[in-house]
Write a structure and sequence with these properties.
The structure holds two protein chains of two kinds. By secondary structure, chain A is mainly α. Chain A has a single domain, classed as Helix Hairpins (Orthogonal Bundle), CATH 1.10.287. In chain A, α1 packs antiparallel against α2 and α2 runs antiparallel to α3. Chain A is elongated. Chain B is an all-alpha fold. Chain B has a domain of 84 residues: Four Helix Bundle (Hemerythrin (Met), subunit A) (Up-down Bundle), CATH 1.20.120. In chain B, α2 packs antiparallel against α3. Chain B is globular and about 50 Å long. Chain B starts with a helix and ends with a helix. Chains A and B meet through α1, α2 and α3 of A and α1, α2, α3, α4 and α5 of B.
Amino acid sequence: MEILHNVTINHYLGLSTVLFALGVFGMLYRKNAIIIFMCVELMLNAVNLALVSFSKMHGDTDGQIFVFFIMVVAAAEVAVGLAILMMLYRNRHTTDTDTLNDLKG
Amino acid sequence: MLTEYAFWFLSFVAVFSGIAVILSKNPVYSVLNLIMTFFSIAGHYFLMNAQFLAAVHIIVYAGAIMVLFLYVIMMLNLNNLETEKRSNVFKLSAVVAAGLLMTVLSGAIQTADQITLAEKTTGTAGLVENLGIALYRNYLLPFELASVLFLAAMVGAVYLSKKNLNETQA
């Protein structure tokens, strides 16, 4: 019960690790480009959680500022990425990543 | 005491809805499960008294990014073309690769010191006032560059969504 009732930095890092590994697993497992995109968001959030817990551990604002900028970049990335997906669907009528092998030698 | 129970509850919600994101057949259910994960992560931010980040997280992710995902799924009408067929070898290797990554990372964590988060629910680092002072005093240049990045992303998204992009390029 000791481990249940005393939340340490390691608990947050463990949760962050699990979420990050889930994101990697989803990227490898799924073929739909939209789901792969969602898994990228999941991985970004895992890193955000680790940064906030480090910031909490040191009682310092810098980690939370980094999280703020990661959110900024994630929002910009989603706007451009989904526009690329729309283009892809308009030209190829699919978002299946296995069919996009034009550059394969 | 209560915060520990809240931690475990939020963690289980986050992990299980994260699994549901990957295993859902319908992309709309994936989006809804991802929103669930984001809300539980926002709950973790609240537990760590990072109030500003919790609010921004809900506004930006649940309010803007996931709505964008839902719009794209709606416009592409992806609901019924889900015919994914992966070979079992591929699925197994995906599981093994992600499992190995998790093993390595958790092995690195286990040797670390167990540091209890000091003044866990009361610290003032995450309050709007302190974050604002840090953001506009020490991080003013990155903050302004972020606005330039947003402008570039907006121009890029609008240009990519133009209907006759191929004709104008040719």
